[in-house]
Design goal:
15 helices, six-stranded mixed sheet, 27 strands, alpha+beta
Length: 631
């Protein structure tokens, strides 16, 4: 006769009568009776077959993205002959995944599509490096869902160096050419072009470098710039190019590139852009960027050089070819940027969502009338997986501007609309970015380096006469348009708060400065001064985070010293917070309750077990307790 098993599963909630004392038990006991023997065997076999079918279904529907998680750094394998590109379908000859397998893909399939010690130590592509070395697991210790020891530095299925004598004959199937730029409009006979380039310039041996140089544009007529094509001299360092139109007060170009930030006070209207993976930009048939006698006469070209190897021997002379025509189109255009300025992406996460909002108030500030979007481009870095930009009016979604659930940093997609999308002052533009940080062992922040992240959208809009501001981003929930315009935000008047001599603020600043010491223990007289200062609206919530972020980016020693005084009493203030005491008491009550629960479970094991072996019931009760504690 088959033996009967009684399985006890403990869940948080209530205690049934007769099992635990209701006074302090929090468990609901569910009894599942399963007969062991042929019935159990058949049932488990049935479940196993269902599980296998589901795995096959998931694998076939998810494609290479499913298998990326089965190998170390599977979503960040560098392309062997396209610098700054990734090879997304690691086991396939097609870099995007699908189709025939490359040597590593064949070995991966033979290993049962799992990462094994044997597969790790194998050199699938015959270039002298093991698969583990190439994928960042040199000691073959990686397990699924773990963080690899190192980043992937080469491809396990492509012999490298790609064009070396050893590898050339093995790599005849590898495609290294970029897509050809196509723009029918530039083939019209009246279209002219000019190429603007940096002179040969040494790239600094630092990872992130922003340099700018101003160029004179054609002024012998009234033109529309209708296309741009990159001229990339050093593809190992070029990350992106932005072209800014300059105000009429700029009357001459510069002789050489110099360090710069994101645009300048006099050159801040984006009229052209290039990023890794793009082969050029072709404007919508109804718009152009006005240059010449009645448009921009000078343009500042900004480079972002990314030099993660910190090499000092790199030179670059990249640039852009600008295509322009005297046959102007109906509308003058500009590029508007939306998105989120603050990112904090924790490591080891499959999905992290971030939203940036260009609010109704923001569009009222930045637009003087209706504008029309003809093209949109999403922009994140290597952790980016999805990006969406939606348009809302009176709180109701009316348009999806971008919908990219399979975003790829090195393959930017320009989304062009057959009919321009109207945006009114008072509309809201929401940008949602989705990141995956499962291979990261540290937090990733917003920043300019490729190893940092971004969450932006670039919208080509017209007419330019209805646009007062071309940037509409947020820092957490704080509007940067309002911040830069020094408007009052949630009771915070930044023009008053940041002025330590203002009558309202002078005493507050003086108390902290006089009573507190930087990098010191909390002084009793300091604590009250800090409490009073931190109660100010400009130090509350996201606005307080904005203030701290700006100070952290500052090189002003006085500001940094002052905020280190503010932080000296943080721990003491937390301990005095009623919420802290409530949590402390809750923890003590929980530990007390768990102790009593343990005693009740032990008593039940002693009294409810009669005859036969006690090992199995004891094991089940122990498992039940563990489930309760971890839930």
């Amino acid at each position: 006769m088959a033996q009967e098993i009684r399985l006890i599963i403990v869940l948080p909630g209530m205690a049934p009568t007769g099992f635990l004392n209701a006074k302090y038990s929090l468990a609901l006991v569910v009894f599942i009776y399963i007969s062991v023997g042929n019935v159990l065997f058949t049932f488990l076999l049935f479940l196993n077959r269902i599980f296998l079918c589901l795995c096959l279904l998931l694998a076939s529907s998810s494609g290479y993205k499913y298998f990326q998680s089965k190998i170390p750094n599977g979503d960040s394998v560098p392309h062997p002959c396209k610098p700054n590109y990734l090879w997304h379908g690691v086991g396939h000859r097609n870099e995007l995944g699908g189709g025939s397998r490359n040597p590593f893909g064949e070995d991966f399939d033979a290993a049962g599509k799992i990462w094994t010690q044997e597969l790790c130590r194998k050199d699938s592509d015959g270039d002298g490096k093991t698969n583990g070395e190439e994928l960042g697991d040199p000691n073959c210790v990686w397990r699924e869902n773990a963080i690899p020891e190192k980043n992937a530095f080469s491809h396990p299925g492509v012999c490298e160096p790609y064009d070396s004598p050893r590898c050339r004959s093995k790599n005849t199937w590898v495609q290294c050419d970029l897509e050809t730029f196509r723009c029918d409009a530039i083939n019209q006979p009246e279209v002219k072009n000019i190429t603007i380039r940096y002179p040969p310039t040494q790239v600094p041996n630092t990872e992130t470098n922003y340099y700018c140089m101003t160029f004179e544009l054609p002024k012998d007529g009234d033109y529309h710039m209708i296309a741009t094509k990159p001229y990339i001299d050093n593809e190992y360092v070029m990350h992106h190019i932005l072209l800014f139109g300059c105000e009429d007060s700029v009357t001459q170009g510069t002789a050489a590139p110099a360090k710069c930030g994101m645009g300048s006070d006099k050159c801040r209207t984006i009229i052209g852009a290039w990023a890794v993976g793009a082969n050029g930009e072709c404007a919508h048939k109804d718009v152009g960027f006005r240059i010449g006698q009645n448009g921009f006469k000078f343009a500042m070209m900004q480079f972002h050089w990314n030099n993660p190897e910190l090499r000092s021997d790199y030179m670059d002379s990249s640039g852009m070819t600008l295509y322009y025509t005297p046959n102007r189109r109906p509308n003058d255009a500009a590029i508007m940027m939306v998105g989120q300025q603050y990112l904090e992406i924790p490591p080891g996460k499959e999905r992290v969502e971030v939203e940036g909002v260009c609010s109704a108030d923001d569009t009222r500030m930045s637009l003087t009338g209706p504008v029309y979007i003809t093209r949109a481009l999403n922009h994140m870095h290597y952790l980016g997986r999805e990006e969406y930009i939606d348009q809302y009016r009176y709180g109701v979604k009316i348009n999806t501007l971008t919908n990219e659930p399979d975003y790829s940093y090195d393959r930017p997609r320009f989304l062009e609309y057959d009919s321009a999308i109207e945006v009114l002052p008072g509309d809201e533009l929401r940008t949602k970015c989705v990141f995956k940080s499962s291979s990261k062992s540290f937090t990733t922040f917003q920043g300019d380096a490729t190893s940092d992240e971004m969450c932006y959208g670039f919208l080509t809009v017209h007419p330019i006469t209805s646009i007062k501001r071309t940037s509409c981003t947020s820092f957490k929930s704080v509007s940067l348009l309002k911040l830069y315009s020094q408007q009052t935000i949630n009771g915070c008047d930044l023009s008053v708060f940041s002025n330590y001599t203002h009558p309202v603020m002078a005493e507050l600043y003086a108390k902290v400065s006089q009573r507190c010491r930087p990098l010191s223990k909390c002084l009793e007289e300091c604590k009250e001064a800090v409490k009073e200062f931190k109660s100010h609206p400009c130090m509350q919530g996201d606005m307080g985070d904005v203030m701290r972020w700006y100070v952290s980016q500052s090189l002003d020693i006085n500001s940094l010293t002052f905020y280190s005084k503010l932080d000296s009493c943080d721990l003491e203030m937390v301990k005095e917070d009623p919420k802290f005491n409530d949590l402390k008491k809750l923890r003590e009550d929980m530990l007390d309750g768990l102790g009593k629960l343990r005693e009740d479970l032990l008593n039940q094991m002693r009294t409810n077990t009669s005859g036969g072996s006690k090992v199995f019931p004891h094991f089940l009760m122990a498992v039940s307790l563990l489930i309760y504690i971890f839930i």
